[in-house]
Amino acid sequence: MLDMKNFTLTKHDDELFAIIKPVKQYSTEHKILAKWGIDCLNRFLSIFEAKYPSESSIIHTAIETLQKWMNGEMKMWDARKYTYTVLALAREIEKNDKTFAQIVRATSHCLATCHVPTHFEGVAMYTVSFLKHFYKNKENVFAIMEEERKWQIEHLKLLMKGVSK
Questions:
Q1: Between residues 6 and 86, which one has the greater pLDDT?
Q2: Can the peptide bond before residue 53 be classed as cis, meaning omega within 30 degrees of 0?
Q3: For 12, how many CA atoms within 13 A lie in the half-sphere containing its CB?
Q4: Taking the chain, what is the end-to-end CA distance rounded to the nearest angstrom?
């Protein structure tokens, strides 16, 4: 488990990667990582929507786009193009609100999972980073971050259960 007191977006999470290795591009496991990313995002969408209701349509479109790719209704290259719209929103929000920009960045990584499976890690890292910023003045901020990481790991293990490696 990552040490949340020393959490940084620049360190890879070996525990997450140990669960998924090896994942082949465009495999069942690849789509499981995309689903897991969506599940992670859904835990924070209502908080984002409450603060940015007019921008939330971009987040929902990204999720819908990824779901279309997962269902074979959209080619990866077409789905991936929408990440640029999501990243533009992240840069715009980040100018005044680094905390909520973390959710948008998590969304871009979630959608980018259709292109490269290992982008799934960005969803995990940016949602935990959101918690770090959102609860920075709470005494139990590290416990909140650890609880989210535990959920992420357990949920990923559950989704990966039974998938041949």
A1: 86
A2: no
A3: 8
A4: 22
CB 15 within 8 A of CB 153: yes
Sorting pLDDT into bands at 50, 70 and 90, what band is 165?
Answer: very low
Rounded to whole angstroms, the Cα distance separating 81 from 17 reads: 26
Average pLDDT of the residues in 15-42: 86
User: CB of 41 within 8 A of CB of 127?
Assistant: yes
3-state secondary structure 134-162: HCCCCCCHHHHHHHHHHHHHHHHHHHHCC
CB 118 within 8 A of CB 36: no
* Residue 45: closest CA among 121, 115, 106: 106
Q: How far is CA 55 from CA 65, 84, 131, in A?
A: 16, 15, 20
Cα distances (angstroms) measured from residue 82 to each of 23, 49, 69 = 23, 19, 12
Residue carrying structure tokens 């949340």: 4
Residue 19 has pLDDT above 90, yes or no: no
Tens-digit pLDDT profile for residues 34-71: 999 999 999 999 999 999 999 999 999 999 999 999 99
Sequence spans of domains, the chain? 24-160
The residue type at 3: D
